Sequence to fold (260 residues):
Amino acid sequence: MPETSGPVPEREALIAGLRREFAEGLPERLKVLRSALDDLTRCYDRDRAETFYYRVHGLKGTAASHAAKEIVGPATRLADRGYQWMERRAAPPDEVSAAATDLEELGAAMRAYRQRLQGDLVP
Amino acid sequence: MKEKPARDAMMGKQLRIVLIDDEPDLRKLVERTLQFIAGWDVASAPDGESGIELVRSHQPNAAIVDLMMPGMDGFEVARRLKQDPSTAHIPVVLLTARTEIDQARLEASGADGVVFKPFEPEALAAQIAECCGEPDA
Fold:
């Protein structure tokens, strides 16, 4: 563990508070992703694909930085898919359907992370 | 290890940092942890356009810029900062959650360093210290 300038318990309390705030915002993030994916199910639009990609890509990086390892896997799969849709300017129905399954897994992972935080705020 | 001397060199300094990232939780994490571990003054912006304006007006010691942002990406933000005489001297560190980075675009952007997510705040502080050319960094 590297040294820090501040006392370790204070640092851990700071990180724990930030993780709690991140966890509290997860249901809203899921709602936004579901809405973006629903839009893509109806018809492809580059702006919608960008919205989906950047939202889930951002979630992936932030989740990793908050040690939310449950979330990183499904978020990475969804981000990779979103990136392809953005680049190819198309979201094939079978891929959108597979993404919907990944999104359900992401929701379960978010719930698991929130539960883990309640038991142990600093892994 | 270079981290400790770099951090030690930074602790007594009141550095100003500008963070440009579209992720609100990531901004909070970087702002608050850098303020806590190094005592730096961190201002932030959610996108490239407003971030460039913030760098121009704030004249920070370094800018931390997320690579993948909607609209203007981090490469373009770095390129514009390095082309502007009023900000060209400011070190730019790119932040990315991607596992690979386009080396040609990185070089063309003029960015001074890259930090991959996830990162430890201490490692980020050390890298910024290095980019700022601190002694022993």
